[in-house]
Write a structure and sequence with these properties.
By secondary structure, the chain is an alpha+beta fold. The protein is built from 2 helices and 4 strands, in the order E-H-E-E-E-H.
Length: about 80
């Protein structure tokens, strides 16, 4: 099972730490759960870049992620 985490640092502090060019407004979030969009920093063309990604676990045996997500939500 995936855990949960928080983002409580100011956007300026996160940008200073990871040195990416974008200036997104990252509000504090105190209960980030799987399947929610989360901010990430990735390397694109040699530069660090901000992006939003869907966070969670997708097992290697899943053939169709859309079907897996529907089934897993029904089991909750």
């Amino acid at each position: 099972m995936c855990g949960r985490y928080v983002i409580f640092s100011a956007p300026e502090a996160i940008r200073a730490l990871f040195r990416y060019g974008e200036q997104p407004n990252i509000p504090p979030r105190y209960n980030i759960a799987p399947t929610q969009p989360i901010p990430i920093v990735r390397l694109v063309d040699g530069k660090q870049s901000f992006a939003l990604m869907r966070w969670g676990l997708l097992p290697s045996w899943v053939e169709d992620p859309k079907t897996f997500l529907r089934v897993s939500l029904l089991l909750i």
